[in-house]
Structures
1.
Amino acid sequence: MNMFKPDDVVLFQGDSITDVNRSREDDSLLGNGYPMMIRASYFSKYPEARITFLNRGISGNRVKDLQDRLQKDFIDLKPTWISILIGVNDCWRRYDSNDPTSAEEFEERYRDLLTKLRQNTYAKLILCEPFLMHVTPDRAKWREDLDPKIAVVRKLAKEFSTLLVPLDSIFTDAAAKRSPEFWSADGVHPTDAGHALIMRAWLDTMKIEL
């Protein structure tokens, strides 16, 4: 099954997990993470497809930064699909910068972003859960902050009838098969295997068979 149509534009948005050293000058250079893997895997199966994949992830971003970039990095690109993976920095800044984002603020900002995307684009939406690997005790402590935000993403996916990539549960299941460090050395940023895990989960959610 292939959910894409000719001339679709697929936009990946998020933080460093999506950015992964993407080019700021050449849209064909999607970086070294899951967006590049998705495009490569897709075209290996459908080389004739006329699909454009774009990456606008920016390291360190939170939901409020996506709101600030709404016009330039969402609407102006005229995407037909928008995939969003955001939230771990809304958690992380509480612990490294004493700059917390409450679950309520996270939900309010995320809902505002999705509402404006629905109002100003015709894009179908794909929400990816933020996730966390328990590689150190302090990372496990972050759960008290991140879990409510994961619940918000699930809630908004239902509210806006979007696709949902359940990454947190997928990474948790993966950690039962091999140590968390195999999937993410610091608990946040995926290894190559971790990015491949995201790629497979994303394609499965899109019902794209390779």
2.
Amino acid sequence: MDKIISFFTGKYILWVILAIPGIGATTKFLTGEANYDMLMHLTGEFAGRFLVISLIATPIALLFPKGKIGKWLVRNRRFFGVGAFAYTLLHTIFYLLEVPLEKVINEFFELGILTGWTAFFVFIPLAMTSTDAAVRRMGVR
């Protein structure tokens, strides 16, 4: 029974759950069923949600020290952070595939667009240091 519980609470099931909306969006994009606005909304929303979940893990664990959810969130916050980066990357890819390069360059410094690019560029080093190998190289602290 413990093996079944650990399987369903393990990281591979979490990865599958985090990937489901992205797989659905990509499939709908490739088959032409989804429009640009729907893809941008979906990927942007999931990027934001997963970022918030990864950031709120420690406060929830501190507020509810005996709670299992807080401990689970702290243990898995890296997965939510990487999921946030993956959806941000997917959001950027859909944007670059839809919008002509000239328009991307012209509107780069508009506040809403610049905010998105800044978030994307901030995510890159965070995602690069989230691998198991990078975490081992950086050490415990």
3.
Amino acid sequence: MGVLFNVPDFVWTMINLVVLYFILRKVLFKPVTEFMENRANSIRQQLEESKENNQKALQLKENYENLMDLIYTEAEKIKKEAEKEALERYDEIIKQAKADAELLKAKAREEIERERIEMMKNMKNEIINLALDAASKVIEANMDTEANRKLVDDAVSKVSIA
């Protein structure tokens, strides 16, 4: 019982460990290392793509903001033009309404004047007829009716009723 350390067993164990190391290195370590390197490359590539996508997103955001500013400016311009056109149209409608009102007033004045003249003629004829009737009843003479009408016309014209 004496020996705790057996040299041949130790040598065989060392040989087995070295062989196992080379086998594991060939079978396990190399594929794991390659896998880790591939994974690191993949992560690196994804980071680069992420940075590129982030840059593209920032560029798109900037383009969008510029486009929105342009659209807002254009909308304001269109709004101001529409307001200007509406105001011009409003003024035009008001001017036209005033012109129409003035035209109606002028036509009404003309109509009133025409009716006044017509009324004055009718009144003159009525006055002449009444005067003739009154004169013929007062005189009760058989005078020529046309001569009487001419006398009354001349008298009324001198008074200038119309």
4.
Amino acid sequence: MDLLHTVFEPRGNGPHPTPLMLHGWGASALDLLDIAPYLCSGKFFALCPQGPLQIPLGGSSVGYGWFPITMGRPLDLKVMFLAREELRKFPSGAEERYPIDSKKLVVLGFSQSRVMVYSLGLSEPERFSELASLSSWLPPDLFSAFPNVPATEQLPVLIQHGNRDELVDVGRARQSVETLRHLRVQVTYSEYNMRHEINTHSLTDLSTWLQEKVLSSITLVS
């Protein structure tokens, strides 16, 4: 496990259903950890890796990202794939160390981590039970890189976006939904009266969706 990370561990011996929670540009492994106790009353083991790229934020402050980006330029797939390879090895190492249920591994990302979330989910849909994209969008360039996109029909996807998002226009999220539905992916989409953020309403809906898609299915199987 080469990536620095934080975890939230629920009560019990496990194995636990686990969201792989990927932070946005300029944040850190601590960024999404705060919401873990509020997801289904803390029943998930949350795994929050930190992007390897350091980003100066001014003064002595440093944030992190998954790969270099240049505003106004298209996605560099070669650079993205190098970063994805490091990240895709991370869950396997985590499963050896933590009580994670590999059959209930959710990939969840906020903002810039969209590329990592969609690239992991689209390339290996059999590896993840669900995918959640928050305040983000699906870059069209990714589809040309993955031959197994039709297999994502069985991968439930949640997309949440703020209608006042100042960084990622809500129109991009809507287009992402249409693209995925065209591929017959099971998409749940919600818009909120918020900016580029996660608010109480969206967090509650995220928790409800995880309860339905992950925990309820566990109850049925058992």
